[in-house]
Write a structure and sequence with these properties.
By secondary structure, this protein is mainly α. Among the domains are: 1-176, no CATH class; 198-303, no CATH class; 803-903, Alpha Horseshoe (Serine Threonine Protein Phosphatase 5, Tetratricopeptide repeat), CATH 1.25.40.10. It is 62% helix and 0% strand. The protein has helices at 7-16, 33-51, 60-63, 66-84, 93-109, 113-120, 137-155, 160-170, 180-197, 207-211, 217-229, 240-256, 271-283, 295-306, 313-325, 329-349, 357-371, 388-413, 430-433, 447-469, 474-494, 500-512, 516-529, 534-550, 576-599, 605-626, 628-633, 635-646, 650-654, 677-684, 688-699, 722-741, 745-758, 763-772, 778-792, 801-816, 829-846, 857-869, 873-888. α28 (635-646) packs antiparallel against α32. The longest helix has 26 residues, at 388-413. The two termini are 49 Å apart. Residues 676-712 are annotated as: Disordered. Belongs to the YPP1 family. Residues 678-693 have a biased composition (Basic and acidic residues).
Amino acid sequence: MLIENSVNVAHMRTLNLGCFPKKVLEFEDSQEFLEQIIFLDYQLQLFIHNKLNGEGLVPPERADNIGYQTELLQMITFLSSVGANYHDSSKTYEEKLYFNVVLSQLHFLNLDFDSVRHQLLQLEVKVNPNWDYTPNTVINEFLASLTCRYYTLLGLTKDSYKTWVEYLKQVKRPFSKSQASAQYWTDCLYDKLAVVLSSGKTVQLSFKKDVVIISNDISIMGFSNYLLSSDYASLVDSKFHDEYNTYLESELSDFRHSHIGFPSAKENSNELEYMVGGMFLSFFNVSSRNRLLKAQNAKNFLISCSEKTYQSQVVLSAMIRVLIELKEYDEAFAAFKTWVAYEETIEEQHDGNIHDILQVIDLYGLCIEKFNPYKSRNRSKLFKYTSLETLITALDKYSAQLLSYLNKLEVICGLTYDSSDSELAKDPLSFLTTKYNLNILLPDNSEYVKIVSRAWYAMGSYNYFLVSYKCPSFEKLKNYTEIVATYLKNALIVNSTGRCTYLFQYALILAYKNELKPAMKLCKFILKQYPESFKTWNLFVLILSALDVNDKSGTIPSLGNQKPTTNGNGNGQISTETLRDLETFIKSALNIAAIYLSKNNEVPVEVRYDILQLKLTQMALWESIYGVQYVLDNLPDVFQLYYELFNVPQEIVRDSNLKMDSTINSTWSHRPSFIGPMEKKSLKQDNNKEKQSIKRLSRMGTMKSTRSEGNSELRSRSSVSIIERKILQELWLWTMKIYAKIGLTEEAEQCIVEAETVWEPNVKTFSSVAMLTSKTRKFLSLQECERCLEFLDREDINFHIREYGNSILCLAKLFVVDDNLENLIFISTKDLNAGVIRIKNYLERFLLSWPFGFNNSEIWYYLSKIYEMLDDRTLLSYSLWRAIDLEDSRPVRSFEVVDELPF
């Protein structure tokens, strides 16, 4: 339906979304009755937000305060005088209803329950008003929200159970996502009804006894899903899940076999859409653990629904969500393209007006987030039949469309973000100290806030993929980088505390941009909110280590004045005192991790990996303080932590069906040992201790488990996942680098043997061999580099960006740094020049990957060497200074180690 171009309707549309008009404070002196009610409602909600901790329907004892009563009486007097200034004949029905519910809620908070009921009963309110009362959908939805608010308040005065159940019985249509205000009051009603049914959360809730009596499918499903997704999930009885599941299966069966057929052109029945909307609007709010309707069953039901509807966006949007949950991304992508075509047609027919703008933003945000190729970086491909270029072209279009919808929502709700010339834009953490949108009082866990913040985050993540993998030029790189930071900040302007993921990702981007102090402050904020975010602990320590290299002013937090004693082998640029402080931070984080693991039996593999990375950062700190030998002595602790984290016995991990001999004296099946006979002879005299250390690490998994009695037993052979094998392989390659640093080449080789035993040889092991042999066996190193690049240049596996960078760096070392004339790999100057030009092209192309290439000091250093050879003084100076700047703020480990699990 067309949206009337009137001021009052515009206000109602904003209120429907759960927001207040941006200029609401100016309404105090307005001559419009509706605007003055809006002003008082805003004052009421502001009072609830600031004084009552957001609880608008607080128990009387919480509101029994003289100071509160004085403020409430002032608002009651003001609103009553406003109502008296206008004759009833000049007031519309929606204005009368709005006035009544606001004044009634004020009386309720003032403990005047007689006045609450008296005020509400002055107006006859039907649960389902005449939807033909006005052709304006916005007004009808505004009335629906006020009606729900009316019955919620009415039930608080007398006959609570009867009032609320009678209301729920009569609800005929589910609320759309853009009816955020109506959904908020429905949740309030559900909450109060659950309290009554459970006798104040002391009695368990029964599906048959407490829910089915509502006898309205839409309300039964809405209330049941609310119970399963809220604090009441633990209060439902043992039969609740089975009884609700039986009910759902019966309802789905009835609808599949119902008389409803494909609609004719004259029919205008929305019964099926209401059923689908009522079922799936709250279905996805229930955690997968409590969700009863399986995704495959939901898909089958929606397919049958699509055969009985014509271009139904409700059915199609639910289908898209189910397909994504089933990981059928090609089908979901095709369905979303169809849905977008439907939406564009409807908007064109209605002069660009959008009925359910939050639903549109929500679905765009979901699909852009889930279809993002970044999620395919190091896992199996999400799409089997859709090419990467096709996907990127589509996502570019969808991102632009989503930005347009967000701009429209910004106008409707009066949202405020950073402007280019504002002072707030200069502060990357302004959202922590400044309330941008005073007209939005919704909590961070509200549907509105979650949808809008997720949309900004999805676009920021997609642009992060573009700047990392598909950046065509330095101009685009700068543009993409700023867009990523802006979009992620916008997500936090809307939702500053609701999602740890958003906060952490923004902190990581700030660290990549070398905005270290804001990143450090944000990490501290995150850890106060989410102390069990172990990747944040890791990032926090890495940022502090980078800050100390660049800032000796003492601004880094210190946990003690004790001066450490070192063995003289430290190799870092960071002050030893600061390193000891960071060591204390790491120790605290690992202690928290130990407590967390003891309290949680089912810990996601991502969290376990974050804890392991935290341990490796501790090793890097120890290396800087005490030297490499100290790290070698503590290597058993790292492997012991791995086996305890993943509960994997070593003999199972090593049996990888690769038909390789994994003993300490093994060599690769695909290459000979790269250590020459003379070198081996000289090394054998001094390497017995290190060799025995590798044997001990390799056998450590067979040791008796030291985990607490509450933890599970070591798992069977079939349950060891590929990810766990890959993590162990990465651990062996990390160990290889430790041995290589002090010249124990044979031990480093044996670490790669172990790595290729626990999991198949791949680009990581190839590049490790290449780096290890780059000084002693340059032809073998070149061969391994070529093997890596041949593998990585394939289109279907072009997301191994770190391995790609390692291979290029190894080539640069071979082509540019000739430290031993006897090991030169070029037989002529012509070959050398060709090799230099080739590696120059590789390096310059890799620079267009941010942050992996652009923030890599080694890349810039080798480019400076090449520009020096080519006598390009301008680029030489720029590259050299860029390398120096990056080295000046280099942490003890790369920030990349805290990124998502790379498997």
